[in-house]
Amino acid sequence: MTHPVIGWERETPVPTHHIFNDYLNARDGRLYFQDLDLAQLFVGDRQDQGLGKTLPSPLEIVYLPKIRQKIERMRQIFAAVSAEVGYAGRFHYAYASKANAAEEVVRTTLGAGAHCEMSSTVDVEIARLMIAAGRLPPERMVICNGFKPAGTDYAANIVRLKREHDNIIPVIEDLSELLPLIESGLPFDVGLRQKCYGPHQDQAEMETANSRFGMDVDNLWQAAAATAAAPNLNLKLYHAMVGSQIVNEADFLTWLKPPIEIYARLRQRYPSLNIFDFGGGVPVPMTLNFTFDYHGFARLLLTTLQEVCRRYDVPVPDVMGEFGRYTTSEHGAHLFKVVMVKENVSRLPWYIIDGSIMTSFPDSWALSEHFIVLPLNHLDKPFRRVQLGGITCDSDDVYPPKPSQSPLYLPVETDDLYIGFFSIGAYQEMLGGVRGSKHCVLPEANELIVDRDDAGRYQFQILPGQSTGDVLRNLGYIKT
Ligand SMILES: Cc1ncc(COP(=O)(O)O)c(C=O)c1O
């Protein structure tokens, strides 16, 4: 197997106009995010891009147009494949906000027409704020996933939200979650979550997997019967999430096939059921040699649904995806300056950056996850193989991740050298935490939110990072 390609892998300079992927490209020795010159944000030696000043490093970039492009692209893919195979159901794009719950992200997904998928009681408050701001209109579905047993804030809050926004579909993880909905007396559409997370070849293997998510087949039928028996509940959606970042289309469908069969059997008995929700799992490029055939996946999914539904003589359902990583991975980048080069008789020279890798991208440390790393300037100079070190004193604060075989090349020239980590917009900030105190008490970086106005010009908003005082206050040294 080839290694994940995380950057430029040669000692020779990057050719002018080299295209790394669909949003990163080189021009005149600089790296551009679409047409945004990233080094210019720090050095300001070329034409102003609308920012009007330079910023200190490190800096987080939130590039909102990318989110809209991703949502639009997936809609186009499903529209094209539906037309091609003659699929009679509709496609619903939901954003799974656990991937990135920042206001500007949720606002952008809603602005692009996405439905809303949530997992906790605070998410309900976010939905409420979005409704108040007119961003979550009545026709949008709100899918309430996550554990919500009777007596929890989340269960009670879902019932409250129902009074403000009718189009809510709580997805039942466990039989016990039905009671608060029944007791509310409110007319809820309900989803049922199948226990099916992880690889499996057939229903038997799926049933015996070690997973806490969803209900086994027996419980699922009981939940369906209880829902049908409740005068105020309507069985609407079947939920079958089989994994995360599933990079092989055939595997994806092999794992979805047993749930699709169960959906069709349920549909025979409960005609109100009309949404097949495959949850998350759609992968995103986090490296430069990522390949996934999105059309191929959509084609396999829709044709499998057609084939199974034909066999059971039921209509095909609407299809919903809850896109978390896919929506938000690529809109996020984190930029650093190389502040020191240290050979230290090591196999490769250490390039030390002015921030922490392990706290900024916890998956690289915890799961050996790879992300794209490229220089922002000096791309037209020779490169050499290096290793990156964060500025904390932690031996794990390094990149590439420890067991990795992927080489990392950066320019030999390190005067004012800036680098970027890319495709880090999903989960990393949520796992590392926003605000609070971080490893080695490093303050959080400034954030630059990038958008475009109607004329296509860049618009920038700066969210200030933490000051030393913020960190000290947070740790109890400064009482306010
Ligand atoms: C219920 C549910 N839906 C959707 C998602 C989003 O998954 P992904 O980021 O793979 O799209 C998750 C992630 O854990 C999830 O638990």
Explain how this protein is built.
It is a single chain. The protein is of the alpha/beta class. It has two domains: 24-56 and 331-474, Lyase, Ornithine Decarboxylase, Chain A, domain 1; 66-328, Alpha-Beta Barrel (TIM Barrel). Helices cover 31% and strands 21% of the residues. The protein is built from 15 helices and 22 strands. Strand 10 (233-239), helix 9 and strand 11 (275-277) form a beta-alpha-beta unit. The mean pLDDT is 97. It binds pyridoxal-5'-phosphate (PLP). Pyridoxal-5'-phosphate binds next to strand 12 and helix 11.
Mean pLDDT: 97
How large is the share of residues in beta strands? Answer: 15-25%
CATH class of the largest domain, anyone?
Answer: Alpha Beta
Overall, the morphology is globular
The hetero compounds bound to this protein are: pyridoxal-5'-phosphate
Subunit arrangement of the protein = single chain
| Helical segment count | 15
Label this structure with key terms.
eight-stranded parallel beta barrel; TIM Barrel; alpha/beta; single chain; 480 residues; Lyase, Ornithine Decarboxylase, Chain A, domain 1; 31% helix; binds pyridoxal-5'-phosphate
